[in-house]
Each structure stands twice: as C-alpha cells, then as structure tokens.
Specification:
The structure holds two protein chains of two kinds.
Chain A: H1 3-17, H2 20-40, H3 44-66, H4 72-76, H5 79-85, H6 90-119, H7 124-151, H8 158-166, H9 171-185, H10 191-219
Helix pairs in contact in A: 1-6, 2-3, 2-6, 3-6, 3-7, 3-9, 6-7, 6-10, 7-8, 7-9, 7-10, 9-10
Chain B: H1 12-44, H2 58-85, H3 88-119, H4 128-149, H5 153-181, H6 200-232, H7 237-245
The chains are: A mainly alpha, B mainly alpha.
Chain lengths: 221, 246
Amino acid sequence: MSPVIALLRRDLLLAWRRKSDATTALGFFVIVASLFPLAVGADATLLRAIGPGVIWVGALLATLLGLPRLFAADQDDGTLEQMLLAPQALPVMVMAKIAAHWIVCGLPLCLVAPVLGLQYGLPTDALLVLVAGLLLGTPIVCLLAAIGAALTLGLRGGGVLVSVVVLPLDVPVLILGAGAVDATLNGLGAQAHLSLLGALLIVFLLATPWVVAFALRIASD
Amino acid sequence: MSRPSLFRYASPAVFYPLAGRLWPWFAVLAAGLAMAGLWIGLLVAPTDAQQGDAYRIIFIHVPAAWMSMLIYLVMAGYAALSLIFNTRLSAMMMRALAPTGALFTVVALWTGALWGRPTWGAWWVWDARLTSELILLFLYLGFIALQAAIDDPRRADRAGALVALVGAVNVPIIYFSVTWWNTLHQGASISLTRAPTMAHEMITAMLLVTFAAWSYAVAIALFRVRLIIRDREQQAAWMQESSEGR
C-alpha cells in the first residue's frame, strides 16, 4: 500500500474514531448561518439577497475552524518528525493530510449547504451552483489554511493567528463563490465564476503542498 | 582581502554603521521634500474645477497609496532574498519595513475616507481599490501578527518571509477578483504613456511628496533595522566593542 494512501486512510480513520472534530465544524456552520436571519430579520427578499454571502462566509470560517490542529496532533506524538524524515516526498504526504481533512470537514459542509440555502429561500439552480462553488472553493480554503497551520505550529494563540494570516488570501474564493450564486440569481449564469474557481483550485493544488512542506520544515527546525 | 561585493553589506556588522550614517540624510531629505511638495500642493497648485479644494488631500493620499503597495513588494523582495541566500539582514529589513507599510496603508485609507466624504458623499464605499487597499492592510497585519507571535527570531524570519511571498503572489489574484467584483473608483489620472490630465503644479507636488514618503520609508526602515540589529546581535563581539567605544 502506498504511503500516501496509508496516510489518507489513517487520517480518515482517526477522524472516524473521534467524530466530534468534524461534527463541531458542521454544527458551527449551521448555527452561524441560522443566526443571521435572527439578526437581520426574516424578510424573504433580504434573506435571498444575503443568503449566498452568509453561507459562504460561514463555510469559510467553519473550514478554518479545525485547520489549526491539522498538524498539531502529529507534532505532539512525533509522527510529524517521521514524516519529515521519510523518503517519500513531503509535499505529497502534506497533500494526503489536506485531502483527508477536506473529506472530513469540507465535504460535509458542501452537503449541508443546500439545506441552509433552502432556509434562505434560494431556488434550485442557485443551490446547485452553491454546492458546485463550495466543492471547488473549500479545498482552496483548506490548502491556504494549511500554510498558516504549518507556520503557526506549536505557537500560542495559533488558531486566531491562522485566521488573521490566511483570511485575506481567501478573498478571491469568497468573491467568486458567492458571486457565482448571485450571478445565477440574477440570471447571468455562473460559468465564468465557477471556471475561475476551478482554475484557482488547480493552481493552488499544484503550488500549495510545496509551500506547506517548506513551512513545516521551518516550523520544525 | 577578497574582492569587495554588494554582499559585503549583507553582514549586519558592516551594515549597522552604514545605516547609522545614512538614515539622518534620508530623514532630512524627507522633511525637505515633504515641505516643498506640500507647499506647492496646498498653496501654489490651482483649485480643481470640479472638486474644489477638497482634492488637495490627494497630495498625501496618492503617495501613501503608492508607497503602501511598493513597500509590500520590497518586503516580498527581501523575503525572497532571505529565503534564497539565507541572509539575516534581508529578513531584518523585511521586518523593519512592515510597520511602515502598514502605516502608509492606514494613511491612504484614512485620507481616502476624508476625500470620499465631500466628493462621493460617503466615508467608505466598497469599491475595488478601497477594498484591495483594505485587504493589503490585513496582509500587513497578518504578517506582523505572525512575526510577533514567534519568539525564535530565525523561525519568525523564515515564517514571515514565506507569508510575505505567499501574500505577494496572491496580491494580483486578490486585486483582479476585487476589481471584477465592483468598481467605482475613478480611473488612474497619472499615466506614463499619455499626457497627464492634471496641471503641472499638481504633478510636481505629488511627485515631491512621493519622494518625501519614499525617503521617509528608507530613513525609518534603516533606523528600525539598526534597532533590530542591536537587539539581535547584542551578544556579538563587534556590537559590544562598538557600544563600548561610544
């Protein structure tokens, strides 16, 4: 079995054994999205207008929530050191860890999002675009946050720090993702937004694992 | 003695006295240029036909906005240098520039708000350039926060350099996405390729203040890098000698 698959399986198994991590992020997402109508009022047109943005911001924050701990447990028990020393390429293993994290924390968000979208009165085609955008966008958020997680490894206040460092970089994802739903609502078609999101995903998939690997080496010098 | 090269000044021990000699000159230059530029800008330049005297804030606003972006680029340049050549001084310069860059970003946003109130009728609008300037401020703050959180200076330098580089790579993406999102800001009035659409005094004043801001940035960065060197190299023999000599 290739080490990458093994690592992926191990992370998924660990997440399965301790389900609270994944469900906490999901609960956070649902609660945040449900708080907004309470704050701004139940006006249906207003909710439909802010819905895509609120759901996207909620998904962004929920994805970031678990990420500061992406490498922490591995560092505590020495697994990370073994990964750094292993003959396999570190970026590939980093990739496996991020993929596992996305499957555990990102994918459920994408699947729950349409339900929240219904609460905001979004029509079916907009819901589909919302899910498509989240499927393309949340991996980018995970990848970027992994850089922050690696850099802040073992620092006090790591969680908030990751958000401060990484959130500005997530702006394009947010604009394109929420913009895709808005464009659908306005009858413009979301293809351009989704294509750009896909392009960003490819770029970040290619580049980020190396940056994360480098950051891990900095952090464990 | 080996042949002299630019890398000679990559040594903090050599750069420290050089920075000490240079920064007062840049400070004086900055003060002189700023006075000249503001005198022309505030007193000599004609009143704008549409915007009245409110436009005069651009003599601070535009240089500050330029510098905020330029300093981020320079910072990213030093970050790349420090990661590639592993030079400590590059990282120190990067660190010394960050607060100045953040300061210019705040000044640009602030003066922009002061200008926007009489001209657009709002302190803040979610226009592409304002928003990207705000995000630039967040990038600076993230960089500073990360550096401040790491106690080990080596690790702080390398981590900060990585963040600065990642930010610099993302800046165009952020800029284009925000531009696409919304735009209200007027097009650039200054271009190298076509004749300027402003009076000559205005251009002169703006350039003078820009050079003043530039000199100020150099002066304060050199001053700050001296403090960083003094802080980090206090154990070094040359530092103890030089402080005894004074």
